[in-house]
Design brief:
The protein has seven helices and seven strands. With 268 residues, the chain is an alpha/beta fold. The protein has one domain: Rossmann fold (3-Layer(aba) Sandwich), CATH 3.40.50. Strands 3-2-1-4-5-6-7 form a seven-stranded parallel beta sheet, with helices on both faces. Strand 6, helix 7 and strand 7 form a beta-alpha-beta unit. Helix 1 crosses helix 7, helix 3 runs parallel beside helix 4 and helix 4 packs parallel to helix 6. The chain is globular.
């Protein structure tokens, strides 16, 4: 299904976990995108070794970028670099994947419970998980609009082949289903920031609809990453394979939606 994701793609948080696997599967697909821009906080640091090795294997496909969602200057510079590389072709797909969660204070303290959550924890996570995707989308919007307006695509079509923004959200953002999983994982900063990301998704979907840009949110599942932990039931390979399948099949009916990696709808 990754072969159906064509054109140009930008992935944030691409140095590990889900973001790295998205870049890997896209670059190794039979018909890879023309450009894969892989953004992370420090593409030259030790935490991006796997991304650099992948980019070295596919130098004609992958471009690494310094893009810190909490640093406006790096976002603006990354947008300038992408615009220069695209040469007017436009950006077809932006995957706002970068996100953080609060680590537990000890093995016995639930992650992000009320007693151990304050202004600092809430603010740090909100800036990365909610404000960051908004600023990134805003900075790259001119290139998304370019892609959406290019000839050869039906003005009525909305898809990742034209122009789309996918915000990586979570089942834990669902207000309706909070009662099911709250005691297992309170995670105040993470849950609240991702619920706000959902509203950002809905706002952007309405705002950019007239430009022909599709905006939606996607839950990757509980995945075996640094954030999800080794006990998670889903591998990064299977999660990303499902995510790319969903992304490649997006259409007008999915504008402003929240789906999981298998295409199932999640209630707000």
């Amino acid at each position: 299904m990754a072969a159906k994701v064509s054109g140009s793609v930008l992935v944030t948080g691409a140095n590990r976990g889900i973001g790295l696997e998205v870049v890997r599967q896209l670059s190794e697909s039979p018909c890879p995108p023309t450009h894969i821009f892989a953004g992370c906080r420090d593409p030259h640091g030790p935490g991006a070794k796997a991304l650099r090795e992948l980019a070295q294997k596919h130098p004609q496909k992958i471009t690494t970028l310094r893009l810190d969602q909490t640093d406006q200057a790096t976002i603006s510079e990354a947008a300038r670099q992408v615009g220069s590389a695209l040469k007017g072709a436009g950006l077809n797909l932006l995957i706002n994947n970068a996100g953080i969660n609060q680590a537990a204070n000890s093995n016995t303290v639930p992650v992000g419970n009320l007693a151990h959550t304050g202004e600092k924890e809430m603010t740090e996570v909100f800036l990365t998980n909610t404000v960051g995707p908004m600023i990134v989308t805003k900075e790259f919007l001119p290139y998304l609009r370019q892609a959406a307006s290019l000839p050869g695509v039906s003005p009525s079509e909305m898809s990742c082949r034209r122009a789309a923004v996918v915000n990586v959200s979570t089942l834990f953002s669902s207000i309706q289903r909070c009662h099911e999983l709250f005691l297992q994982a309170p995670m105040y900063p993470y849950r609240v920031s991702k619920a706000a990301l959902n509203m950002l998704t809905r706002c952007l979907s309405e705002d950019l609809k007239s430009d022909g840009i599709l905006v939606m949110a996607l839950h990757p599942g509980w995945v075996q990453t640094d954030m999800g932990g080794p006990q998670a039931p889903l591998s990064t390979e299977d999660s990303v394979r499902g995510m790319l399948s969903v992304i490649s099949s997006l259409s007008e009916q999915h504008v402003g939606s929240l789906l999981d990696w298998e295409g199932r709808s999640i209630p707000w």
